[in-house]
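Whether sequence alone determines local backbone shape is best considered at the level of individual chains. The sequence in question and its structure tokens are set out directly beneath this paragraph.

===
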Amino acid sequence: TLSLVLSSFPLQILGNVSEFQRVVGVLQEGVDFDIDVNASVFETNIRVVGGLLSAHLLSKKAGVEVEVGWPCSGPLLRMAEEAARKLLPAFQTPTGMPYGTVNLLHGVNPGETPVTCTAGIGTFIVEFATLSHLTGDPVFEDVARKALKALWKNRSDIGLVGNHIDVITAKWVAQDAGIGAGVDSYFEYLVKGAILLQDKELMSMFLEYNKAIKNYTKFDDWYLWVQMYKGTVSMPVFQSLEAYWPGLQSLIGDVDNAMRTFLNYYTVWKQFGGLPEFYNIPQGYTVDKREGYPLRPELIESAMYLYRATRDPTLLELGRDAVESIEKISKVDCGFATIKDLRDHRLDNRMESFFLAETVKYLYLLFDPDNFIHNDGSVFDVVITPYGECILNAGGYVFNTEAHPIDPAALHCCRKRKEEQWEVEDLMREFYSLKKKTNKKFTFKRTSDHGEGESAKDPEDALSEKGGEKRNSRKNSHSLLSCPSQSFTSKLAVLGQVFLDNT
């Protein structure tokens, strides 16, 4: 139920602020994670932790009353932290790669299988790094990084990773290499983690993978499945989940290749009115027992990213086709049903949560060029945190793999480098000493809720500045904004796109 509620959170703020406020109010009353339930570590992270973090960061924009000290504190942030802590036992393996399932009350069950898919290991850095930066507890980012590095260490000699691996022994159980199901969001999070954290290492990992993927899996702008050690074709199929790839290519500036691949996928859409789960490329038709279309978002997601990069009207045509197709063949009295078989458009009695969380959201954003998500940085909010003035909502949002947007600026609001912390504390001690000499009352209280010191602030001042201030960057001095220099060889453009120097 919580996953379903969170799936539509950012959609509600995009189109229905009052509903967003109502649901946030209900959630703030508390959710109990101390339950005897076996939960998917991957799904709980991307849906529950990611949804709560996104709702926390968007709540002020939606008019929800926030705590003094937000975005470094708040009930939704505490709830996200509680949920994430329930997942940490899964990472306690010899390799640092997590189990696929954890019991929320008891931890990893004794009989739990050690075999986890690659995506289930490499899809944590966006949420866990955000959580670490907001709370000051490095444990979340640390375990996510360790899992990413373990996958990198165990890639094959030709630079590919398989589909499933034993997290205890690091032996590959399924050795099919590709960009689709079981692997997809691992590659996605290397790129998005690099953008979110300005991380050279993560981007370098992806670019190396990208070379191997092009060398061994790409054929005529299609991407096939190959044996990870030999590079021989194992499955000449296109999976609908692979349709995220053109959008990911656009994020690193490889727009020409992205458009060619996107157009291949679009021809499949036009053939069936949707993307079948599997499509046999040589035969040009669906694969037996994989003819369904559960209204997945990946092709529309790529269309949104590519339209922001190119303004090519073909991408809007896909959006129009998607809206018309979903309305015509999927709409029922109480929602939008999964297409059981695209050959005759028979329906299944279910609607996936990602339809609300992703498909509708990406369609909305494709056709709404002025949405705040697409902000180019000309407008932003200034908020006061325990660490000083902070810039938020300036654009460049990074979507997690369940389409929950994370504001990268928020990661810089709640943490300072240790030397800066010491400098502040030294100044405060000096000030305290001067005050004692003049016999005036002054109290400096050192706080360590998150393991780092916070500068003292008059509560009345904090309350008066609680609401923040909307400003226009074109009318303000440059002192408000500080753009960190990027450590990897690329330029971060507006709209969250990274264009490499050689493109």
Observations:
- The chain has a mean pLDDT of 84.
- Residues 1-235+379-421 form a domain with the Glycosyltransferase fold (CATH 1.50.10.10).
